[in-house]
């Protein structure tokens, strides 16, 4: 198991790759408890699209998610910004773009998910069901991912 | 992906597709392959898509009919889907289960291979699955009262299935460390047309 990587540079250089936890969230037209979520902070979010939520998508978003309280200095990146996300367990890589604000990183400081000796620490990105299910099972709820911009 | 696992899974995906397309030999073979875990199905990987693109190999919606091994699904965006389920398809409904547990009215997410006729050959189907960020408002016998962004949700504890993960430690069946007022993440199965879910896993701080 590897030690959590330092994150202080993330806010300085948005191109710095990092490893974190990821979960999934529904958005857009949906059934069940997801039905009220709507198109997310960007207004374009759909569960069936390759999209993500980012904790610092705007100043208002940052004030809700506060990744800095976990020591994560994430850069401000707005709607439509693209990431490459690789599932640490599956090794599968996907491309996603920001469509919502989240996850609420401050609620999960220090939480880890590990796979193959690599750990993702803190929830720094959430994926739509289409994106998450491409790299891990939805029933797992969380997975470790490596992310680069 | 490299190595024999990836090669085997790619071969399996082709096999699954063949099964859906109706080859008798392939259908027999697909059944012999048996159910696999969602993780194994996912390891095949999706087709390369641009960031933000709609994934053609993914479907969501509610089941409006079941015709043999085909799920008729009305997407939440009102698109109509036909989803083929084979013996090798991974099916989840609160737990890993079988296609026979699918019912009209169930919500679903499905991942597989989009065929030329527009139908989806499913590698994995998740029935009624929800992932809720909640605050625990009350704890009763075999039941959690949850606040999900201002909406009240009842979480039913299912003996032998429901589990808790505290601070990232391995899942345990003991939910007694959950606390009122704390936040949690709930993976569960929605009870269609209600505000209740059956709990699969609760992620929480102890």
Most extensive interface: pair and counts? A-B, 54 and 55 residues
Overall number of structural domains of chain B: 2
SSE arrangement of chain A, N to C: EEHEEEEEHE
Give the spatial strand order of the biggest sheet of chain B. 1-2-3-7-6
Q: What is the C-level CATH assignment of the largest domain in chain B?
A: Mainly Beta
Structural class given helices, strands, pairing of chain B?
alpha+beta
Query: Helix count of chain B?
Result: 3
How much strand content do the residues of chain B show? 35-45%
From the structure provided, what is the oligomeric state, counting identical versus distinct chains? Answer: heterodimer
Structure summary, number of beta strands of chain B = 13
Annotated CATH architecture of chain A = Beta Barrel
Major sheet attributes of chain A: 6 strands, mixed, barrel
Largest sheet of chain B: 5 strands, mixed, barrel
User: C-alpha Rg of chain A, in Å?
Assistant: 14 Å
Span between N and C termini of chain A?
25 Å
CATH hierarchy: architecture of the largest domain in chain B? Beta Barrel
Secondary structure: number of strands of chain A: 8
- Percent helix of chain A: under 10%
> What's the CATH topology label of the largest domain in chain B?
OB fold (Dihydrolipoamide Acetyltransferase, E2P)
Concise description?
Chain A is mostly beta strands and 149 residues long.
Tell me what you see in this structure.
The complex is a heterodimer of chains A (149) and B (206). Chain A starts with 17 loop residues before the first strand and ends with a strand. Mean pLDDT of chain A is 89; it is low at 1-6. In chain A, 7% of the residues lie in helices and 31% in strands. Chain A has a single domain, classed as Barwin-like endoglucanases (Beta Barrel). Chain A is mostly beta strands. In chain A, strand 5 and strand 6 form a beta hairpin. Chain B folds into two domains: 5-46 and 56-128, Copper binding periplasmic protein CusF (OB fold (Dihydrolipoamide Acetyltransferase, E2P), Beta Barrel), CATH 2.40.50; 130-204, Beta Barrel (OB fold (Dihydrolipoamide Acetyltransferase, E2P)), CATH 2.40.50.140. Chain B has three helices and 13 strands, in the order H-H-H-E-E-E-E-E-E-E-E-E-E-E-E-E. In chain B, the strands form two sheets. Chain B has a five-stranded mixed barrel with strand order 1-2-3-7-6. In chain B, a hairpin with a 5-residue loop joins strand 12 (183-190) and strand 13. The interface between A and B is large, with 54 and 55 residues.
